[in-house]
Amino acid sequence: MTTLSIPISGDLEKFIERMVRDGKGANKADVVRRALREYKENEVVETILQAQREITLGKGLKGDLRQLMRKIK
User: Fold this and answer.
1) CB 54 within 8 A of CB 60
2) pLDDT over threshold 90, residue 10
3) Cβ contacts of 41 within 8 Å, gap of 6 or more
4) Nearest residue to 32 (alpha-carbon basis) of 71, 69, 1, 65
5) What InterPro entries does the database record attribute to this sequence (predicted)?
6) How far apart, in whole angstroms, are the C-alpha atoms of residue 73 and residue 67?
7) Cβ(23)–Cβ(31) under 8 Å?
8) How confident is the model at residue 70 (pLDDT cuts 50, 70, 90)?
9) Contacts (Cβ under 8 Å, ≥6 apart) of 30
10) Contact 24, 34 (CB under 8 A)
11) DSSP-derived 3-state class of residue 11
12) Directed axis angle between helix 28-56 and helix 10-21, to 10°?
């Protein structure tokens, strides 16, 4: 595991400390890790939703996945 040292505003530090007090994380690092995991999950969900929007607009790929992959290579 890598350790990062980053400057944050006083407001963010207070927010993180409140999250620890409220039991949202075991400590400050845990709160930040949880926040980053949630951010990552939200990105994945947004990517899926965007793909669904594109399919609705007729921009999706159709056909056999293996054949499509051969065309891309």
Assistant:
1) yes
2) yes
3) none
4) 1
5) ParD_sf (IPR038296), Ribbon_hlx_hlx (IPR010985)
6) 10
7) no
8) confident
9) 20
10) yes
11) helix
12) 100
pLDDT of residue 27: 98
Provide the phi-psi class of 23: left if phi over 0, else alpha when psi is between -120 and 50, else beta.
left
What is the structure's pLDDT at 60?
Answer: 76
Burial 22-31 (b: 16+ CB within 10 A, else e): eeebeeeeeb
Per the model's pLDDT, the better-predicted residue between 68 and 10 turns out to be 10
Share of the chain above pLDDT 70, in %: 99
Q: What are the boundaries of each domain within the chain? A: 10-72
Phi and psi at residue 58, in whole multiples of 5°? 80, 20
Per-residue pLDDT tens for 42-69? Answer: 999 999 999 999 989 988 777 788 887 8
